[in-house]
């Protein structure tokens, strides 16, 4: 809960966030939570950045910790997206760049935000972005008061490793910011926003990220930010630099969503469990083979399956060519025969199922030329058979 208040000593308006322990939490754990909040407030107070909401003080009220912060008249990005829908690429890149610059400063101080999401990004009347709510952040190596097994953050924007129970680190903030940018461009986060938190966590842990359709030139880098492997993601400083390179007036064309047969990182949810999904992504995004950040260049990614299809298709094209030549020989020979030709055709026709190569290609391969001539491609064994002459 956040209150607008007046600082009587310094004569200025402030925002006060009151932190409450969860209902039913034992008194000892509630005391630990309060100590953790006060410690994290002191850590966050070290951060001074024009795009981060600063913490002025930490006090107790009725036994509950309260954070005294700068009052920033603004609208949460979540409300902007609700009212306006998906935003243009240039605007999203500018907002993301400002937030990334603040998070870069936080990371340099050893601070991990752990809950980057549209609701914690404040947009002022002049369009500037500010990242807020460092109340659950913690310094790297200073997590001794973190309750074992507790997941901090919002499921729809969590990094996969955090959803699997691992501790949040700098790459987790990169992933959460990538999810936020994805939501601002597409209208919803990569994993959706369904109300079933358990199902949502399953999707996040499985890292099922459908490629965006409105990100334009930012698409490859955004997928880098959303890589399933933390070490494959760019640093927050690299995110700041890349987003600064997007023109402020850029508007990306909307591309058609890729289907399941396309070479994407989408894994069918019903066909895998989280461990299988992770291994599938390892095969698609191998950091040792796929470039600096682990995600392959999109054009190379598209070329590789095409080359593979050509290799698989070559034997069938050769068989099809041989079948056509055999059919032409057979037709030439048949013009010299008498009315027994019909029996020969019928006998040869019975073998079409054994020589036609069209039964083998998979659904992901394009149709081969053999499917256009199912009756003439088969009589490869009948062509050399001599036609009996009348006696």
From TrEMBL:
Q: Which keywords label this protein?
A: ATP-binding, Kinase, Membrane, Nucleotide-binding, Serine/threonine-protein kinase, Transferase, Transmembrane, Transmembrane helix
Determine if NAD is one of this entry's keywords. Answer: no
| Membrane-spanning segments | 313-333
**GO MF, one annotated term:** protein serine/threonine kinase activity
Gene3D superfamilies in the record, alphabetically? Phosphorylase Kinase, domain 1, Transferase(Phosphotransferase) domain 1
Protein EC: 2.7.11.1
Q: Which residues form the Protein kinase domain?
A: 1-244
- Biased region (Low complexity) positions are 354-384
Q: What is this protein called?
A: non-specific serine/threonine protein kinase
Q: Which organism is it from?
A: Knoellia aerolata DSM 18566
